[in-house]
Amino acid sequence: FKLPSDSFKYLGWCDIEEHDVRGNQLRCPRVREGPSEEELFFRREEHTLKKRKQVTDREKWEKRMQENWENCAELNLSFQDLGDLYQLENFQRILRRLIRVEKLWLVDNSLTDLSAIRLPRCRELNVNKNHFTSFKQLPKIPQIQHLSLAENNIMTLSGISDFRHAPLESLILKRNPCEFQERYRQLVFSSLPNLKMLDGIPKLPEDCSPPEIRFFYKMCTIL
């Protein structure tokens, strides 16, 4: 059954022109684009939007320059509802421009793989409630200090050692399958020597792997 709001679907899309607000001045921008005319045609919903004017390449370039993502230091791109492939591509285009971002929130975006993205200055990253299944699918974050991966689908701790040389101090893996792995906390702390807190709990003495015990046997001859 259709929801009561279904009749208003896509009616809220608008493109504000001739404004002085730049992308890095927005606290929580909405970067999800509305459906194209071709998409509306295939959905038989072309009547829901007015015919858009033909945008020139120059206008597209000027609009992207106005976004100014390169100067963002803190950015919240959560809950974008990336339902179409071209919307996801536009989302990743913006992520590739975040060369100076230090704090980034990407919560609940149904993300599966950002391994092609590099965030050279990112110190805090929150990707809770996505669809990551491995640490290998995360973006390149060499300066990361606080990483939150709660409520994803990370099965094993394979690949976590990639962060061994990063200044990672705090990691959240709550509600991931890997949390039920035997000796879970010991394995995480042994892989990440700089880590001080896991799932909101500081490093405890029992989280340290016990020293390897070696037994030395001597041969004794009884006459």
Structure notes:
This is TILB protein. Keywords: Leucine-rich repeat, Repeat. The protein has 223 residues and is α/β, with parallel strands linked by helices. The protein has one domain (26-207): Ribonuclease Inhibitor (Leucine-rich repeat, LRR (right-handed beta-alpha superhelix)), CATH 3.80.10. The protein is built from four helices and seven strands. Strand 5 (170-172), helix 4 and strand 6 form a beta-alpha-beta unit.
In short:
With 223 residues, the protein is of the alpha/beta class. It has a single domain, classed as Ribonuclease Inhibitor (Leucine-rich repeat, LRR (right-handed beta-alpha superhelix), Alpha-Beta Horseshoe).
Number of strands: 7
Number of helices: 4
CATH class: Alpha Beta
Content of β-strand: 5-15%
Tally of discrete structural domains: 1
Q: Radius of gyration from the CA trace?
A: 24 Å
Structural class: alpha/beta
The second-level CATH architecture is: Alpha-Beta Horseshoe
Order of helices and strands: HHEHEEEEHEE
Low-confidence stretches: 211-218
Could you give the order of strands across the largest sheet?
A: 1-2-3-4-5-6-7
Terminal residue distance:
91 Å
Protein name: TILB protein
InterPro entries: LRR_dom_sf (IPR032675)
Keywords: Leucine-rich repeat, Repeat
Keywords:
single chain; 223 residues; alpha/beta; Leucine-rich repeat, LRR (right-handed beta-alpha superhelix); 17% helix
